[in-house]
Automatic annotation (TrEMBL):
Keywords of this entry: Glycosyltransferase, Transferase
Highest taxon of the lineage: Bacteria
Protein name, per record: Alpha-2,3-sialyltransferase
GO molecular function: glycosyltransferase activity
């Protein structure tokens, strides 16, 4: 933080100013991104049967949710 105060040119711009910001927001709503998020969550809870819940519950919910979007 001291370097940024000393030289403001080192500070990064806000995320909204990047040219591909809207594309990134769309990508966060796709099936593979949500599947990856669910897998990471299951990995963090492996000791509470996270992988089993992921396989039987989360994957089914995502297929149901995104299957409807594809059909429309």
């Amino acid at each position: 933080k001291f370097k940024i105060k000393k030289n403001p040119n080192l500070a990064l711009p806000s995320l909204e100013t990047y040219p591909d910001y809207n594309e990134a927001l769309k990508e966060k709503e796709c099936f593979t991104y949500k599947l990856g998020e669910a897998f990471i969550k299951a990995s963090k809870n492996w000791y509470k049967c996270g992988y089993i819940k992921f396989y039987f519950k989360d994957v089914s919910e995502l297929k149901r949710k995104f299957g409807k979007k594809v059909l429309k």
